[in-house]
Amino acid sequence: MLLQVEGLCKAFGGLRAVDDLSLVVSEGEILGLLGPNGSGKTTVFNLIAGALRADAGLVRLSGRDITRHPASIRTRLGIARTFQLVRPLPHLTALDNVLVAQLFGRGAGPLRPEARDASRRLLDLVGLGAKASVPGANLTLAERKRLEIARALATHPRVMLLDEPLGGLNATEVQTALALLRTIRADDVTLVIVEHNVPAVRSLCDRIIVLNSGRPIAEGKPDEALARPEVIEVYLGR
Ligand SMILES: Nc1ncnc2c1ncn2[C@@H]1O[C@H](COP(=O)(O)OP(=O)(O)O)[C@@H](O)[C@H]1O
Ligand SMILES: [Mg+2]
Question: In principle, which of 55, 145, 194, 222 could form an S-S bond with 41, CB 3.0–4.6 Å?
């Protein structure tokens, strides 16, 4: 068990965004986290990554309680995340965006001479090799999403939390992104993915959890969980 969440709660005022949520993520799997808008998916990521503090409950990484660890320490322990609204450093080149991320990751120390080569390899991996010297602000949405993934990978994560990585991409870009995510998993990075593209989720995920109002309403293999009446009613039937 790589990641474990137990009884996690987060309220905003009177709104229970995440309501007594428990889940586990196994090493090497691709877990999909689905649910309607406002069901708490991004909040779950914020609680796991440490951007928000839980009101109650535990987050464990390889059995270690990290619930009260700041985000920076969680990054060093191997949790990386990408954002629904991508935000590379706009004035830095694609290469420097990745280079900077290396400073914060697992086993990070001062940048070594080979760090630049490592960043180039990551840009190649995500298909941005030719854009290394382009400023973040001048990349297309699809390119910024791939840069975001390269930045996350630069921290040498054990688990990556991907928040709507396919949102806004065209059909060709989606296929490219799916191939990239499969490559990343093959490199022993566990993936948790929030995504509304249901066909993509079916083909990519080993297992999904569907949330509604901060609670799981279905869990299992994508085809099984998506066929559940509760899921059709609150999510697919919209
Ligand atoms: N920082 C915040 N302050 C107040 N309410 C928030 C905040 N973040 C999220 N919420 C609310 O919590 C609920 C869950 O939001 P979110 O986790 O972003 O859902 P999802 O990612 O599934 O669309 C929503 O009702 C949202 O409006
Ligand atoms: Mg969200």
Answer: 194
Instruction: Residue 222: give the domain boundaries.
Output: 1-78+159-172+181-194+205-238
Residues 6+ apart with CB under 8 A from 172: none
Over residues 95-122, the pLDDT tens digits come to 999 999 988 888 777 778 888 999 999 9
Print the SS3 string covering 122-164. Answer: HHHHCCCHHHCCCEHHHCCHHHHHHHHHHHHHCCCCCEEEEEC
Residues 6+ apart with CB under 8 A from 132: 93, 94, 95, 120, 123
Is 166 found in the same domain as 125? no
CA of residue 68 to ligand 2 center, whole Å = 23
Residues 50, 9 share a domain: yes
**pTM for this structure?**
0.95
Nearest CA to ligand 1 atom 26: 38
Distance 17 CA to ligand 1 centre (A): 6
